[in-house]
Write a structure and sequence with these properties.
The protein has twelve helices and two strands; from the N terminus they run H-H-H-H-E-E-H-H-H-H-H-H-H-H. Helix 3 packs across helix 9. The chain is globular, with a radius of gyration of 18 Å. It is mostly helical.
Amino acid sequence: MFMDNIKQYLSKKRQLVDQTLGSYFVDKGNTLFDIMYYSLDHGKRIRPILAIAGYEACGGKDINEIMPIACGLELIHTYSLIHDDLPSMDNDDFRRGRESAHKKFGEATAILSGDGLFAYAYELISNGNGLVAEKNKVISRVSEAVGPKGIVFGQMLDIAAVDPLTPKKLRNIHLNKTAKFIEVSIECGALIAKASEKTIEKIKKGGILLGMLFQYTDDILDVVGERSALGKTPGKDKTAGKITASAVYGLDGARFRAKRYAERAKAVFHALGSEFMFFDQIIEYILNRTF
């Protein structure tokens, strides 16, 4: 029964995020915004939804306080996908069920559209509602999670990785490329809701575990999920030569470790109280997702 509830929640929040994102891109009189929105469209919106959930769980009442930040996170996520897909990076021709930005618009324009999304994200975050002190904390934490201490470093590790495949390499890539951004998304909501330092520290721990789970299920789905035959270049094995959970541990080992991350994440969020029950459901949903 809860799975139906979580699907309804995700659908409702996704629609809200999509509507708000659209409002940031209409009537700009600038073709670059249209190109940026091409890549932004059709996302699952996991990171903005986690920011909203963190805000609500910590007592936030006015969703307009968190929405610009939540949308900013999605812009940053999309920028990272555009750059990941480039020929010099992962070299993927398809993203979100259609041509990647560099295939649709050319490599130079794709790079610029990613740059535009990254900069525009901070405009949204800094101009949003909420107290300056909280927004400054958000900007600091997001910058740390997505810059050379986070996503950018994780991508560098990913493209530089060579045999032998080791658990240490895998964890370092997953932690920086995915988990830190998942964690900071929840933390942003908590910061804007003015959560206590004690609560935020627990959220950091639980969020990292949730982020690791998310990447493990991503790796598994690249092999067995519904999307394994979708959104990829025909004839190209997306996981070939990559350090993934299934490559390091085998499929059964990856599934076992994903379940362990889920159990550990649940334990942390349970300790935060009934207001965080959503995270129990989202953890179960991520663990069992098929796309």
